[in-house]
Amino acid sequence: MSQPETRSPKRQVSFRGRSNVPVASSNAEGEDAPEFEPFGLMPRGPPPLAEFLDIKEVDMLSGPDEMNKREHHTELYSNPLLIVRRGQEFQIKVTFNRAYEPSRDQFLLEFVIGNSPQTSKGTYIPVFPDPERVGLWRGRVLDSTDRTVTVGITAAPDCIVGRFRLYVAVLTPYGIRRTRRDPKRELYVLFNPWASDDAVFLNDDGERGEYIMNESGIVFHGEASDISARPWNFGQFEYGVLDACLYVMDQAQMPITNRGDPIKVARKASAVLNSRDDDGVLVGNWSGDYTYGVAPTSWTGSVEILLTYHSSRQPVCYAQCWVYAAVFNTFLRCLGIPSRVVTNFYSAHDNDGNLKTDIIVDEEGKVDRFRTKDSIWNYHCWNECYMSRPDLPPGFGGWQVVDATPQETSDGLYRCGPASVQAIKHGQICFPFDAPFIFAEVNSDVIFYKRNKNGTLEAVKVNSSHVGRIVLTKEIGGDQPSDITSQYKFPEGTAEERTVTAKAEEYGLCRQKVNYPESDVQVEVLAQEVRVGADFQLTLEFKNQSNHRRTIKAFVNGYVVFYTGVTSDEVKYKTLNVTLDPWQTERVIVDVDASDYMNKLVEQSNLHFMVTGRVDEGNQIISAMRVITLHTPKLTIEVTGSPRVSEETFCAVEFTNPFPFNLENVYLRMDGPGLMSTKFKQYSLISPNSSVMWSQPFTPRRAGPTKLMVTLDCLALRHVYGQVDVNVEL
């Protein structure tokens, strides 16, 4: 039985002898405002007399119906504190003991973050309500009525992102009078894609609505010709998620001063979202044994994962690429960085930069499984985040690839990106970060080698269009896939594509040159949709594209594979002899019985069929590959009645076991943004052809359209899920 990933205790590194104070890297801790007098040196003395200005109350105007949250698009956050975006004015009301008189009274607001706050580092920010006194942040008096003054504050568009503490100070003849620290007077400052001066500015309302405000998403998986869509609750506005995301940066020991740069935030987060180096958020597991945690296929969303990590201070078990990408998406959107989940079908894992995946066949054309070590992921999920890239030449800003799945190290840590999508498309892989690796994921060649009797390898065939077959993300405003392949590469074989490859080779990423005879016989495995537990027929289409008769000896190999392309067990092996007249096309049927694969399936139920062989005339090698994703049964989900805010309603989930065997230790999970926290139910056994019904009450917290998601998971059946649209009324 495999054991969970082991981690050595985190080594505590002392700053003693290196600096006078430790680097401020925690947003959860902090000191009071420093002993710094922005009014100038003032004498210390007794408390001010009654006739001098004194602070009675500070109103943060933090309610969901207040202008601050509406104008800053933060009203959906389930958090009572003020949440604003940088580069945009927000308001605070200060009530004094008497009317404020600008000619004789002076006061200011002090914003503090982290330990050892300093003006020079942007961690201590005094704001005078006077447009003529320009500092890091701007302030002005918007209204003064009776004893209450409304102050407008505009945070700098490049300021630190995180949780600030607020103090209000007034000048008296006897010195400074400052409010005490109060957690209710803390506020969050986020990135602002609505502000043109912010590095994450996105100038499209539809895109901002999708890539910042949308809490529900779709993760595409399966096979390039048989794509499935899995719902996911990003839940970036749910209670506790914002604090959990800030804790992620604290856990990474990211300096507070770096947290205003989206490039540094995205790169650091890509490392700490996985647990390989730094006790990060998620433990990766592709073994199929999830005894000590939750199976990756069982999660319904990011909220449960992030809250568990924040509360336990321990990595959460377990994740695979789509879980990493989905949780990373929540992190980015929560902090205000536009982001989306991307799926690359047939994704190469190239760790040596030669842009090739090797498949070795013997002299007859049969695949040599013992010597073929490379694999191609059926699909791989990563993220794109939107930002300017002032560190790159003009034109390489916009969408950037970041990937939290631990595949290869980058500068000593398991992380990837941000890498400009434009740079990848144009072969400019000299630009940071990790562009060569991502370029190879969508551009590698599959090369077939014939192993001769003397042990030498001879390249006999290349497939340059298999890897990076299609790149998808969710469309704006809907649940359908949007094909963004053209954003990553030019069409195969075009002049632009050859130019890009040449450009990449200039920067050291070398595609291996092979000379192979052109085959005039083609073979294709036709796509089809198959249910788990069903018998099916594999259709092979042979085409003779010559004026001569052709005799083919072909081998059909079928394997159960993990979605990473790693082979598990063989389920089919068949030898075929096919004779084709000139220009003839012939279809050959291969029967595959459920008994061949059912007791060998691994999660996600993928079967990989490879047809290889040799044409007697001319000694040509033929090949074709097809991944068949077996479709799992669906859940029936229904919400009763017309859901209303703060009124209890019910969600009913029904599932019938269609298999001739028992399903044991079955877990159902239910989740929905604005509807409920994660709920789950366990069934010890579901017998063949029997049904279970789960009715779960929930009370919606806010009005509007949303989704409710459910998963079913057990050892014998993974990747069963469903969703239902819910429109909550007031």
UniProtKB/TrEMBL annotation:
InterPro entries: Ig-like_fold, Ig_E-set, Papain-like_cys_pep_sf, Transglutaminase, Transglutaminase-like, Transglutaminase-like_sf, Transglutaminase_animal, Transglutaminase_C. Binds 1 Ca(2+) ion per subunit. The active site is at 321, 380, 403. Its cofactor is Ca(2+). Its EC number is 2.3.2.13. One of its GO terms (biological process) is nervous system development. Ca(2+) binds at residues 443, 445, 492, 497. The keyword Zinc does not apply. SUPFAM superfamilies: Cysteine proteinases, E set domains, Transglutaminase, two C-terminal domains. Keywords: Acyltransferase, Calcium, Metal-binding, Transferase. It catalyses: L-glutaminyl-[protein] + L-lysyl-[protein] = [protein]-L-lysyl-N(6)-5-L-glutamyl-[protein] + NH4(+). Residues 1-43 are annotated as: Disordered. Belongs to the transglutaminase superfamily. Transglutaminase family. This is protein-glutamine gamma-glutamyltransferase. It comes from Aldrovandia affinis.
